[in-house]
Amino acid sequence: MVARACIRNVLRFEPHRRCFHSGYRNSQFQPSHRPRHGLSIVSHEPTRPQVTSLFSSRHAGNITTTTLPTTTNPPAAWAQTYHPPTTGLISHLPTRLIPFAELSRFDKPVGTYYLFMPCVFSTLLAGTLTTPLTPPLTILTTTALFFSGALIMRGAGCTINDIWDRNLDPHVARTRLRPLARGAVSLPSAIIYTGVQCLAGLAVLLQFPWSCFFYATPSLIFVALYPLAKRVTNYPQIMLGLTFSWGAMMGFPALGIDLLSHTPALIAAVCLYASNVAWTVLYDMVYAHMDLSDDKKAGIRSIARAHETSTKPILAGLAGVQTALLAGAGYALGMGPVYHLAVCGASVVGNGVQIWKVKLNDAQNCWWWFRYGVWITGGGIAAGMGLEYAAQYLGLYKEDVAGAHDSTVATKVAF
């Protein structure tokens, strides 16, 4: 009789036990009496946030609470709470402005450097095309303007990205504490802030020749579409490349060279742009491996997910494409041996070392190579182009040496 009574009591509590351990506890599953002998059920699961539900239950008039389930064994990073920055420039901002600075990633400038590099490449190439050569001071002031624009528009792009991803970021450990994801910035405020940044970017753009406005405007389409690409394709990095590489064309009109009226310059700009697209896909594929496990859980698509087991061969192929296209840009403009040795050499060595050394299953190692790859590869390419510009500026080439084609494709092109 005692055993039968115990079995009856266990069966009576079974619905409640199932609900409790699955992470939900609704009032309609509560037992109609308290357990005898003061027994209670103790959960060993992590504490979950309580959400108030106004839906009625069989206990009319009562407001019930529902315990939301969480991921089993969440990553260690998920246990972290947000702490305001204590170092860096944004730590000195008023507290209410810090979330907006974080939206623009002012505390993580590496993305700005990646956006800035194509602008440097195109400016240095374009500087060798004018007659006489563009003065070094003009090169410096032009690149300084480009850096200002890259800083502002990269911030605008990050804000747009976070607006689109506000429902995805909470599910990824690395992004769960972003301002929109943690609720530090409201959606209307983020939209207004995006508009302010775009206006600031327009103010910088208007400092360039008027033709730059028409060359730059189409890039906004890619800025807006990139976050959507993660939802519909395994290759959003290509869309990112089309966006981040736009500066590879902007240096030419910035120095007064109309791409549409000069075929060699147009061919060089297209090759330079395509080479930067390949480079962007390369470095962002490494970056995507940082979030690989979380992306799988959240359903976020990326080239790293699609080619997880064949990443390094793809990286090697992208590096080869980048180098070949850089060589094509130099050939179209009749560049000298310094260009081909220094620029193409920097691409081969920088990318080669990164592909060889990066540990794709180690998020910290991926971050290191992403963070410093912009200087190892991008900085090397920029230095090579700077050497070619210096060689021409100092008259180390005869005018007919670099122009291996006909006179219209000579090193110095008059416009």
Automatic annotation (TrEMBL):
Principal cellular location given in the protein's record: membrane
Entry's transmembrane regions: 113-133, 139-160, 180-202, 208-226, 238-260, 266-287, 314-332, 338-356, 368-387
Domain of life: Eukaryota
One Gene Ontology cellular component annotation held by this UniProt entry: mitochondrial inner membrane
Membrane topology: Multi-pass membrane protein
Pathway annotation from the record: Cofactor biosynthesis; ubiquinone biosynthesis; Secondary metabolite biosynthesis; terpenoid biosynthesis
Pfam families: UbiA
InterPro entries hit by this protein: HB_polyprenyltransferase-like, Prenyltransferase, UbiA_prenyltransferase, UbiA_prenylTrfase_CS, UbiA_sf
Record carries keyword Mitochondrion: yes
Name of the protein: 4-hydroxybenzoate polyprenyltransferase, mitochondrial
Species of provenance: Myriangium duriaei CBS 260.36
